[in-house]
Amino acid sequence: MMFLDCPAYLDEEGALRCGLPAEVKRRFTMRSSDGPLEAAMIRCPSGHWFNGPIEFLAPEKKGEARSGQCRSCFQRQA
Fold it and tell me: Which of 11, 30, 33, 61 could form a disulfide with 16 if both were Cys (CB 3.0 to 4.6 A apart)?
């Protein structure tokens, strides 16, 4: 069994995340123009459901930039 932190926003400003452990219900491979992507369907105990590439389902930790984004760009957005 695999878990990810739930990426759902709980407020309109996008500052507060659910963060409950979301169970991976199904894993699969998505096709893309850059090649295959590992994807999943997740659900948290609050009832939030998400489908998509795993790298986009896992909320970024504070001070961690997503791939393809420079650290200084990320710090300016925070």
Answer: 11
pTM value surpassing 0.90: no
The DSSP symbol for 2 reads -
CB 64 within 8 A of CB 55: no
Sign of CA pseudo-dihedral 15, 18, 19, 23: negative
DSSP characters over 20-72: PEEEEEEEEEE--TTS-EEEEEEE-TT--EEEEEHHHHSPPPTT-PPTTS-HH
CA distance 59 to 1: 19
Identity at 18, one-letter amino acid code: C
Q: What is the pLDDT of residues 34-78, one digit of tens each?
A: 999 999 999 999 999 999 998 888 766 654 444 443 333 333 343
